[in-house]
Design brief:
two-stranded antiparallel ribbon; elongated; alpha+beta; 6 strands; two-stranded antiparallel sheet
């Protein structure tokens, strides 16, 4: 029995020492560092939106400061009536579908598409600049032609010649501006 106690104590001692060693090994291990993603300080407002995509290769951020730019409202009305009138049958069927576009300030688009600058339906910055230049050049040419031709002809009219000369000059300037805009739109493909 003595030998049995010694064997049991030896096996139990080895078991206890193994468990203590295993616990020491587990408690001493340092945890693997957790990689934290970076913090993005994106300005936020009532009409802003952003999308962040993270992957193995890096980060991709899409930010819109004024989203949505165009708000849409849709309304529908459907009316069916099959009433028999005083003089006979009457059938009325009316369907109406209305879609409106609004800007953020609440102004409604009354016609056409609200286009963004540079997109289809909008006016590009190059076309605006070309139109302004063409109008300016046309106005100068129109006023020069009117000053050389029309003003001397009407300036000799007694009492109102000076006034009609100014009107002729302004009319030549306005006509030249309109003609310059039309010619500029043809040459600039706008």
């Amino acid at each position: 029995m003595n030998k049995l106690k010694i064997v049991a104590a030896s096996v139990g001692g080895v078991f206890v020492v193994a468990h203590i060693g295993l616990l020491g090994y587990v408690f001493r291990q340092e945890p693997e560092p957790v990689i934290q993603p970076p913090t993005f300080n994106i300005p936020r407002g009532p009409y802003s939106s952003y999308k962040i995509k993270a992957g193995k290769d890096g980060y991709e951020i899409e930010f819109r400061a004024d989203d949505p730019k165009v708000l849409e409202s849709q309304r529908s009305l459907s009316s069916d009536s099959n009433k028999k009138g005083f003089f006979g049958g009457g059938t009325e069927s009316r369907r109406e579908w209305r879609t409106d576009q609004f800007t953020r300030e609440g102004t409604r688009n009354l016609g056409g598409d609200i286009g963004e600058v540079g997109k289809t339906g909008g006016v590009s910055a190059e076309c605006i600049a070309a139109d302004a230049g063409a109008r300016s050049q046309g106005a100068m040419a129109g006023s020069a032609i009117a000053a050389g031709v029309a003003v001397p002809a009407v300036a000799s009219i007694p009492y109102v010649g000076w006034l009609m000369g100014g009107w002729a000059l302004l009319l030549g300037q306005k006509a030249g501006s309109t003609l310059g805009s039309q010619v500029g739109s043809v040459f600039n493909d706008c």
